[in-house]
Write a structure and sequence with these properties.
The protein is mainly α and 103 residues long. Helix content is 80%, strand content 0%. The chain is built from 3 helices and no strands. Keywords: Membrane, Transmembrane, Transmembrane helix.
Length: 103
């Protein structure tokens, strides 16, 4: 398996994992702060935000594994992991409490 083919396998799986992780963390923050009416009311927003984060993370992982991975696969994976962690952190920090910090 070439590194290009490996990138086609890694990027979607890592992007999906990043999107799911971001949505789960955001759901936990929203539950702790009593945002929304109930779990079903937040579900559509979490689905949309998680899909958006997954698409962004898939593009990030794809670029890193495709271009940086040609020379050093370990550096590409570490860079992808660091970028995904920053994306999830910014995602949760921006969307944690829509009406401001009251919890």
């Amino acid at each position: 398996m070439t590194r290009g083919q490996l990138g086609c396998v890694i990027a979607p799986l890592a992007g999906l994992g990043t999107g799911v992780l971001g949505a789960v963390l955001l759901n936990t923050a929203w539950r702790a702060c009593d945002v929304g009416v109930n779990g079903a009311a937040n579900g559509l927003a979490l689905l949309f935000y998680g899909a958006l984060l997954a698409l962004l993370a898939t593009a990030w992982w794809g670029v890193l594994v495709a271009y940086v991975g040609r020379w050093n696969l370990a550096a590409a994976l570490l860079g992808g992991l660091a970028g995904a962690a920053v994306m999830v952190w910014v995602f949760v920090a921006l969307l944690q409490v829509p009406d401001g910090y009251r919890c």
